[in-house]
Amino acid sequence: MATTTTKVQPVNEVKDPVTTSNTGLNKPQTKLIIGALVVTAILMVYLLMSQEAMQPVLLLLGLLLGYTLFHARFGFTSAFRRLASVGNGQALRAHMLMLGVAVTLFAPILAFGVSFFGTGATGYVSPVGVSVLLGAFMFGIGMQLGGGCASGTLYAVGGGRTVMLITLLFFIVGSTIGAAHLPFWTDETPSMEAFSLATSTGLGYGGAWVVSIVLFGLIAWITLVIERKRKAPKMAPIPTTTGWKRIFRGSWPLFAAAIALAVLNALTLMTRGQPWGITSAFALWGSKVANFMGIDVASWGYWQGANAQALEASIFADSTTVLNLGVILGAFIASAAGGLFKFSKLTKGNVSAAIIGGLFMGYGARLAFGCNIGAYFGGIASFSLHGYVWGILALAGTFVALYLRPLFGLSVPKSKDSFC
Predict the structure, then answer these.
(1) Angstrom distance (rounded) from CA 102 to CA 375
(2) 387 phi and psi angles, rounded to 5 deg
(3) What's the pTM?
(4) 80-89 as b/e, with b when 16 or more CB fall inside 10 Å?
(5) How many CB atoms are closer than 10 A to CB 67?
(6) Transmembrane residues, as ranges (predicted)?
(7) Residues contacting 126, CB < 8 A, separation 6+
(8) Which of 27, 149, 236, 340 lies 20 to 30 Å from 313 when distance is taken between CA atoms?
(9) Of 75, 41, 100, whose CA–CA distance to 259 is shortest?
């Protein structure tokens, strides 16, 4: 009997009010673009006048990150889900390309401590313990319910997906609770020392780079084997344009976005001395609100030592906050340029999933020392073992979430609610 194969909605194609339809491109939303540029200009001037010199640069990098994420619909959540559900690994191979370029750029930067503002450069290398295992697993479940990862939540908010505002709100709540509980997980549960392929093995950054490239190639090959074995459906193209116009309108190739994100992450590392991160700002925002409400946030172990200054200072002095604002604005400009900005509908199911998913992601990110950006992307690019462990446990959480999504009316694998 002949069998038919249905094309899977690709990572960089999501049929909802925010994205372009399959019939063509929309006209640019000029008024929204102008408004976004005015807001960006005001924020840029404020940062130039009141903050350190690196903050305006980080805002620009955030804009470019958000712009790239939106145009390519570069997915972390959907990449994991499609591999787990139907065996499609095209997006995960784009991850491997992104990571390959990232380690190539990160290796000399970290080896020589190169930076633009004299801060030095250090990667995200964290311990592996119960907190990372549990946190990454929770995050894997949360991003599949919440409809997006950390970066996906930000650029989906910029793109107008209303439900992602709810995900973001509870992401902040979960991250704040996680910050309050983090000392227990780090001090009272088993954990090994932080392990770097470069500095903990004697390989150096050159040897660690070789090992990393081999691992990325192996993972890419495994995804091809899985695709052949499961006869995975292919990703269908989405409308775009050609030539220089493609910079502003239509879909970007995943491989181009992978390279761009890796380069932008390296520039972020050289600008602020740390790789791109997202969720530490959520803990800061939530803690400031809790402090305003009379909760003694300063007594939490999380806000002792080096973090204490951030709690006292303006949020605009926080480099991660500035990056996050840039991502939202960049995605907003990209969506408006494509004529795609439109608020989406809320349902009881996607709101419930957004609340639970946001809480799981926020709490999980704190326990796991980061999210899909800080732990997975930044950790692996920094040659940290915890980045690989994060990816494995988040994928395990994805498998569990496949059974939970239908309870909230979310489809598998073609989700109208996943924008990451």
Answers:
(1) 14
(2) -65, -40
(3) 0.91
(4) bbbbbbbbbb
(5) 27
(6) 32-49, 55-76, 97-118, 163-185, 205-226, 247-267, 322-341, 353-377, 383-404
(7) 132, 194, 369, 370, 375, 379, 384, 386
(8) 149
(9) 100
